[in-house]
Write a structure and sequence with these properties.
Strands 4-10-9-8-7-5-6 form a seven-stranded mixed beta sheet, with helices on both faces. It has a three-stranded antiparallel beta sheet with strand order 11-12-14, with helices on one face. A two-stranded antiparallel ribbon has the order 1-2. The protein has two domains: about 140 residues, Aspartate Aminotransferase, domain 1; about 170 residues, 3-Layer(aba) Sandwich (Aspartate Aminotransferase, domain 2), CATH 3.40.640. The longest helix has 19 residues. Helix content is about 40%, strand content about 15%. Helix 7 links the parallel strand 7 and strand 8. The protein is an alpha/beta fold and about 375 residues long. It is built from 15 helices and 14 strands.
Length: about 375
C-alpha cells in the first residue's frame, strides 16, 4: 500500500493510506488523501483519522478532561462558541436533536405549541420527540417548501390564540439551510421580520443552525447576523468541524443556567465528552476561510462542468453549497460514478425524496485542481 501525504505535511495524523489492491468500484472516499467527495458538508472521518488528530491535539496543546460533560475543554468550546455567536452562554449537547428539543422546551414554558417548517429535520426525523417527551405540539408550516411565509406565521398564531380553547404558540423554530430542500436558505430579511413579530407577541425564537458556519461561508454572511435575531441557536459540531458527535446550544445566561440538569435528565450527561469537544474546537479554526475558498473554486468548477455535453448543474435561488445535477437520459449515473472513482472523485447516486440528484461542495474540493476534476468528468462521460 502507498501512503499519500495531505497538504504536503509529514505528520502521522495527516497521512491516509491509498489502497492499490482494490478496484475503482470498491474505492472509498477515505482511501485517499486526494478524494473529492461531492456529498456531505465536511470531510469524511474514520476512527484512525480522529484518533490521530486527537494525539496531535494532545501533544500540541493538551486536552483538559471534563466531568460528565462539565468543565475542561468542553467548557472552553462552550465559551468559544458563545463568543462567536454573540450569545451570553452556550451548553454542549451530544446531538442536535436534543439541542433543538431543549430549546423549544424551555422557550415554550407552559405554552403548548411550537411552529416549525414542514420540511424541517425536527418535524420529520425525530419521532415527534417534542410532543412525546415534552407535551408540546409542533405546528408545521410551508408545506413542501424550504420555508414558510409571514402570512402563514401570522395565521397560525392567530388561530392558536383565538380558538374555542386557547393554545398559544410558545416558540418558533427556523431551520436554515434546509437539507430536505437542497440546502436552501431562508432569506435573512424574512428571518428578521418573523423574529421581530414573534418578539412582539412574546413567542420565543430558535434557529436550527446545524450548518450555520457552512451556510455563512457559502453565502459570505456572518454567523452573528443570523444568531442575533434569535433567542437561541444550535450549531452542529460533527457535520463539518470534525468531531464524532456533538452540538452547541447558545442563548442568554438565564436560558442556559442549569440547562445541564435537563441534559442529564434526558440521559445525556456523557462521560469523556472532551474528545469530541477537542476535535470540534480544533476544527473551527480556519474553517470559514477553507470553506469560502472551496466555494469559490466550486463555482468556477460548476461553470466548467456545464460546458460538457450531457451534464447540467443548476443553482437554487436561495441556495448554499448544494447544486441540482441533471444528466441526459442516455447517461447512467451509477456507471458515471464508477468511472469517476478511477480519478478519486465520488458523486452520490441516490436521489433525494423528490427524485433529484445533487452535487455538494465541501473542502474536499481543494484536494484536486478544477482542471483535474473537469478532465475526470470528460473522460468518464466519453
Amino acid at each position: 500500500m502507498i501512503q499519500k501525504e495531505r497538504d504536503g505535511m509529514n505528520a502521522p495524523d495527516t497521512q491516509i493510506q491509498e489502497v492499490e489492491s482494490s478496484t475503482a468500484k470498491q474505492r472509498l472516499p477515505t482511501d485517499s488523501a486526494t478524494s473529492v467527495v461531492f456529498s456531505g458538508d465536511g470531510e469524511p472521518k474514520t476512527p484512525d483519522s480522529m484518533l490521530s488528530q486527537l494525539v496531535a491535539i494532545q501533544q500540541n496543546s493538551g486536552i483538559a478532561a471534563d466531568t460528565y460533560t462539565l468543565g475542561g475543554v468542553v467548557e472552553a468550546l462552550e465559551q468559544r462558541m458563545a463568543q462567536e455567536l454573540g450569545k451570553e452562554a452556550a451548553v454542549f449537547m451530544p446531538t442536535g436533536t436534543l439541542g433543538n428539543h431543549l430549546a423549544i422546551r424551555r422557550l415554550c414554558g407552559l405554552k403548548p405549541r411550537a411552529i416549525v417548517q414542514e420540511q424541517s429535520h425536527m418535524y420529520n426525523d425525530t419521532g415527534d420527540c417534542v410532543q412525546q417527551l415534552s407535551g408540546i405540539h409542533m405546528v408545521p408550516l410551508g408545506q413542501g417548501e424550504a420555508f414558510f411565509t409571514m402570512s402563514e406565521l401570522q395565521a397560525a398564531v392567530t388561530r392558536s390564540d383565538t380558538g374555542r380553547v386557547s393554545n398559544p404558540v410558545g416558540a418558533m423554530m427556523i431551520e436554515s439551510p434546509v437539507r430536505r430542500q437542497g440546502g436552501q436558505v431562508m432569506p435573512l430579511a424574512d428571518m428578521k421580520v418573523m423574529t421581530d413579530y414573534c418578539r412582539e407577541h412574546d413567542i420565543g425564537t430558535h434557529l436550527d443552525g446545524a450548518r450555520l458556519y457552512m451556510m455563512c461561508a457559502a453565502r459570505g454572511d456572518s454567523q452573528k447576523e443570523y444568531s442575533e435575531l434569535f433567542d437561541t441557536v444550535y450549531v452542529s459540531m460533527y457535520k463539518y468541524f470534525g468531531a464524532p458527535f456533538g452540538a452547541i446550544l447558545a442563548g442568554k445566561e438565564q436560558f442556559c443556567e442549569g440547562l445541564y440538569h435537563d441534559r442529564r435528565m434526558f440521559g445525556s450527561g456523557l462521560s469523556s465528552s472532551a474528545f469530541a469537544a477537542a476535535l470540534a474546537l480544533d476544527g473551527i479554526d480556519g474553517f470559514e476561510d477553507r470553506f469560502a475558498k472551496a466555494m469559490a473554486q466550486g463555482h468556477d468548477l460548476l461553470d466548467e462542468l456545464n460546458c460538457i455535453d450531457g451534464i447540467h448543474i443548476g443553482q437554487y435561488e436561495h441556495g448554499s453549497n448544494i447544486f441540482p445535477l441533471t444528466l441526459d437520459g442516455s447517461i447512467d449515473i451509477d456507471a458515471l460514478a464508477d468511472r469517476l472513482k478511477e480519478s478519486w472523485i465520488f458523486v452520490p447516486t441516490t436521489p433525494d425524496d423528490y427524485g433529484r440528484h445533487h452535487l455538494t461542495v465541501n473542502t474536499t474540493l481543494l484536494r484536486q485542481s478544477n482542471d483535474e476534476i473537469a478532465t475526470a468528468f470528460r473522460q468518464a462521460l466519453s
